[in-house]
Amino acid sequence: MNSVLQKFCSEHWCEFILFHSKTISVSAGNSIFSAGEDTLGIHILNKGKAKVVACTGIGTDRIIRLAAEDDILGHRGFGGPWKYTVSAIALEDSELLFIPIDIFNAAFKSNPDFAYYMLMFFAEELRESERLATQLPIKNVIASVLYNNLQVFGFEKDSSTKLSHTLSRKDLASQAGTRYETLVRTLAELNNENIIKLEGKAIHILDIEKLVLLKEGN
Amino acid sequence: MNSVLQKFCSEHWCEFILFHSKTISVSAGNSIFSAGEDTLGIHILNKGKAKVVACTGIGTDRIIRLAAEDDILGHRGFGGPWKYTVSAIALEDSELLFIPIDIFNAAFKSNPDFAYYMLMFFAEELRESERLATQLPIKNVIASVLYNNLQVFGFEKDSSTKLSHTLSRKDLASQAGTRYETLVRTLAELNNENIIKLEGKAIHILDIEKLVLLKEGN
DNA sequence: TAAAAATAATGATATAAATCATATTTGTAT
DNA sequence: ATACAAATATGATTTATATCATTATTTTTA
């Protein structure tokens, strides 16, 4: 059972939503939905991890969001022409609850608390999107990306510094909106400053405080 | 009477909202609300024009949105710590309807169609915010900014090319996220290519088609 | 275990845009 | 009209980051 629904919808509505939703499995590297497709509903990540990629057509793709358990996916396809503007790709084998759009709409209009939760969710997404638009030197942006990776993925169970999931350098560059080489160089710099520790592909976050200062532009 | 409310709220609720709202006047150049202040409600621009400025603290401020009649202002203060993340400044003498947050919330929870409209509004804002985050060469960004100015402000009554409101070069640079000098040079370039025409401070849009191609990255 | 492929790293160079400097035009008040 | 301030414009230089080129390391597979 999904916690968001349970919290904000009546018992009767929860049953109704679940009855009309389906659980889908997507294995690592596979697409959950793709930019350009019709928005048929909304996804909630029950298990696994995913990246949301803006395929701009021109230039290089950009990772605009990372998602983990309980995160909502596909809401960027809402409104306008009801097509996804972004693609979602599973980073690990994942399991999602898919709620068809008409069921979502019915639930939205009949459960004011759920509606309000969704509005607040969009409001947060908007704030975050705007925050990311701030123009900062690339080192600060990369600090922000690393912090976001920590927020979404957290540390490994048996470690207090190692990220539980390390994106490839290519993906980290994509999330930072920069080039691979620039990302690698900047990681090396942060490594020298003991803010992070590079261990092969894996990244350890050593100094969260400094990371926060950096991402805030200091 | 406000058209959005009228369209999506029951007559009884319209009266209730208007009874608890107030109309405020802000003269050109003055602040409607400022970043950091508590979000006390939502504004609807009844008359006039405004700019929404993200004050990043670090670096230079950035215009993230322009607003004209019927546009909603202040929704970026929703959620989280309920503080405005941006400032809104009147570009002309303006008149706004201010709906206190508790009245908005009550209306939201009791008028499903209004709630849905608001959700769609946030969804559009999110799409737009993400679209702007696309990294393009500055000329393309500036084309996008000019197009947005046209969308929001339109042409002067007696002209089919002259923008009804021309932001200062400084403000245009701020909206494009670039420097004054770069903006001026790029405008000169677009002027030479007969895509726009510079007439003192005023800007004429001569070739909307080319502007659209540019803003799309072509 | 070796070879191949993929990923990560580093050095050299090019370039778009920022910054600094200065001139020109436009608007406003005396 | 004249002086002053503000806004607009343009030239020269610097800088951050992209791009190109090459090497090193890790992972996969044969």
Helical content of chain A, roughly? 40-55%
- CATH-assigned homologous superfamily of the largest domain in chain A: Jelly Rolls
Number of H- or I-type helical stretches of chain A: 8
Order of helices and strands of chain A: HHEEEEEEEEHHHHHEEH
Q: Using only CA atoms, what is the Rg of chain A?
A: 18 Å
Q: Which whole number gives the mean pLDDT of chain A?
A: 92
What count of domains describes the coordinates of chain A? 2
List key phrases describing it:
homodimer, alpha+beta, Jelly Rolls, Arc Repressor Mutant, subunit A, 4-stranded antiparallel β-sheet, 8 helices, 10 strands, 42% helix, DNA-binding
Which helices and strands occur, and which strands form pairs?
The structure is a homodimer of 218-residue chains.
Chain A: H1 3-8, H2 11-20, E1 22-26, E2 31-33, E3 41-47, E4 50-54, E5 62-67, E6 72-73, E7 86-90, E8 94-100, H3 101-110, H4 112-132, H5 138-153, H6 169-176, H7 180-192, E9 196-199, E10 202-205, H8 208-215
Antiparallel strand pairs in A: 1-8, 2-7, 3-6, 3-8, 4-5, 4-7, 9-10
Chain A binds a DNA duplex (30 and 30 nucleotides) through α7.
